[in-house]
Amino acid sequence: MGSVGAKEVPELLNAEGRRIDGRRLDELRPISIKIAPLTRADGSAFVEWGENKVMAAVYGPREVHPRHLMETDKAIVQCRYNMAAFSVDERKRPGLDRRSQEISKVITEAFESVIFTEEFPKTSIDIYIEVLQANAGTRCAGLVAASLALADAGIPMADLVPAVAVGKVAGRIALDLKKEEDNFGEADLPMALVPQSGRLVLLQMEGHLNRGELREALDLGVTGCREIYRKMREALRARYEAAGGAEEAEAAA
Amino acid sequence: MLPGDEIPDRGLRPGFGTYRMGSHLYASVLGYATWREPFVRIVPFAGRYAARTGDTVVGIVQDVQKTFWLLDIDAPRWAPLHVSGTPWDETPPGELDQHLRVGDAVLVAVEDLDPTGRIGVTLKGEGLGRLSGGTILHVSPARIPRVIGKGGSMIHTITRRTGTEVAVGQNGRIWVSGDADGIRRVRDCLRLIEEEGQRPGLTERIEGFLDMTGPTDGAGPAPSLSSEQGERRWEA
Asked: If interface means Cβ-Cβ distance under 8 Å, which residues of chain B face chain A?
């Protein structure tokens, strides 16, 4: 979790119930979304979420490389999560490490369960997530960006996948932790939801939560995911409204 | 429609871009819904080229095997072009590279599709063949009918007025040959079609653009329609 350089723990929750950046416990950081910033990729999205900046690009379905990974009855999903060297305060050593391998794996598995891979046998759907600036919750921001990029690439899937982390800060359950809260908090619980079916496709936990707290955290996370889902849909709508409206009129004529 | 949106089925069967869960129907891709007997389907805004039998496409040779070539046609998978589907079917196995090498562009027709996503293509047919020289431009496959126009009117106007020769692939690839200025004008026309293709009066705007940017019929550099490639047949 980067360097914990501060000498003392900052006050994470003040007397009025406000957090370090003035948010309430159930409040998300501001999110802004840009669809299709890249022209070479089949689909792409850029997400700014608090101080996180994450770019996602999707290629495919396309030929599988290396070939031995090919599945004869479905597409494979390959995802690479990567943090830029300049994304954190102390220079991050570039390249694959245990953390980014793990995140790539869990994100791949989350998408494998929503993409209709059986529609494209013997192909690969490649997802690249690049974290340009990190401030806790980058796997969730990456998932959101990748999900939008998949939609932009026209890849068939059950639903968009919103994601958010819930944590425990100063003894209370809080939505969408930022860096200080993640570093000095007691728990972190990232999750990804498929709103259409209500299933969770990613759930991890770091730190400790008791049964009651876990239940509260899950409820808060699902609520947060649904709010993010609305923003994701708005962004996609805005991007395709002009073209879509005209095409629809044309189809009706 | 966005992925996960519920669609009323109006008593029709689920078609492309939809899925059923329980008793409800949902969209799986970004696009708009159409209800036409017997299917509810989504017309996608994005996605790779979905091949249909009979389509003419521009392919680029990616690999040469003993008895076939593999072509990139912007579809999910490479399309095999077997020698038996070419005029060179007498070529001994392993010597195919004397006809087409990696990187060569060809105009081929989609011959057969199988459920595993294999797309067989052929070089035998009117107007099909190797594309030599020229350059390849891209538009969204959804815009190709606009590029061609009714009975080929749009593409005829563009080639006549720019003195170029053009081969349009249903996969969104457009091969253009001619002088640099002609190619530039074709590219700008395609961009105009791509951006404003859904608005009425497109033909007039393209004509206006061509009037503005270059010489009208006969006044410019001699059109370079080569007799070798001949007239092509256009189907919208």
From this structure: 2-4, 17, 19, 21, 26, 28-32, 34, 43-48, 76-78, 116-117, 198-199
